[in-house]
Specification:
This protein is an alpha+beta fold. It contains six helices and ten strands. Strands 2, 4, 5, 6, 9 and 10 form a six-stranded mixed β-sheet that branches. A two-stranded antiparallel ribbon has the order 1-3. It has a two-stranded antiparallel ribbon with strand order 7-8. It is globular.
């Protein structure tokens, strides 16, 4: 009887040792904080009415290829930014619009891909569609391409609006990722007052937008600013949560369903 009981104790001791060893082993290999997506959500879980057109998963973008780090055609945001975007969506839905998302969280490897592409001055396949008025050599100088992006911190989103009545994307007078002053929120108007003035002197080739197109940009801008986002002075489609939870962290995990 003693031998049998002693044998059971030995087995239990071995099992407990194995469990403790596994726990210790796991604690010795913590998740890299840059690769930790635990504070992020798939955007459409928070904003189920959003339309996704993830440009960097496809080939219709200024590079002309799928961008590194985009494993699935989805969008991710920090939980805090996603909750604020839901408030934007509710606001615009009441006005007859839906949000259309081009990009949200962007891993650092994607930004690195942009940098490599910009350094290759011979690759101008998409120039007619995204930067026809610029020589590719100025993209770094004019900060269209940078080594760090606010998107990589997880609380920045690129978006437009979709009209539920016409069932069409709202005409903003320019395409997403157009490199030029025509993309600036103050092009042809004053975004602080919402007034259109038609001043297109900043355009190197005399391009312009109409009063209606400027007003459409303002619909998106007002809703985003009303719910905690701040604009970028060079892109009408780009907004960052004012109180972003990771202002100094540039994440590395890929874009895929969480």
């Amino acid at each position: 009887m003693y031998k049998k009981f002693h044998g059971i104790l030995v087995i239990l001791a071995v099992l407990c040792g194995s469990v403790l060893s596994a726990c210790c082993s796991k604690s010795e290999t913590p998740v890299d904080p840059l690769d930790d997506s635990s504070q992020f959500v798939t955007l459409t879980t928070a904003v189920p009415d959003a339309i996704l057109e993830i440009r960097y998963f496809g080939t219709y973008n200024f590079v002309g290829a799928r961008i590194d780090g985009y494993l699935q055609p989805t969008a991710l945001l920090t939980r805090k930014a996603a909750d604020s975007l839901r408030a934007v969506s509710d606001d615009l839905m009441a006005q007859g619009y839906r949000l259309k998302i081009y990009d949200a969280y962007r891993p650092q490897r994607a930004v690195d891909h942009f940098v490599r592409w910009a350094a290759d001055l011979a690759d101008t396949a998409m120039k007619p569609y995204f930067y026809p008025d610029l020589d590719k050599s100025v993209l770094f100088e004019q900060e269209y391409i940078m080594e760090k992006s606010g998107h990589t911190r997880g609380s920045t989103v690129d978006l437009t609006i979709f009209d539920m009545r016409t069932e069409k994307e709202v005409d903003m007078g320019g395409t997403f990722d157009w490199f030029g002053p025509e993309s600036h929120p103050d092009f042809c108007g004053n975004p602080e007052t919402g007034e259109y003035n038609g001043d297109n002197s900043a355009s190197p080739t005399g391009r312009s937008i109409t009063a209606e197109q400027f007003a459409n940009r303002m619909i998106l801008r007002r809703a985003m600013l009303a719910h905690g986002f701040k604009p970028l002075d060079s892109e009408w489609w780009h907004f960052t949560l004012r109180e972003e939870p990771f202002p100094d962290t540039y994440f590395t995990f890929p874009v895929q369903q969480l």
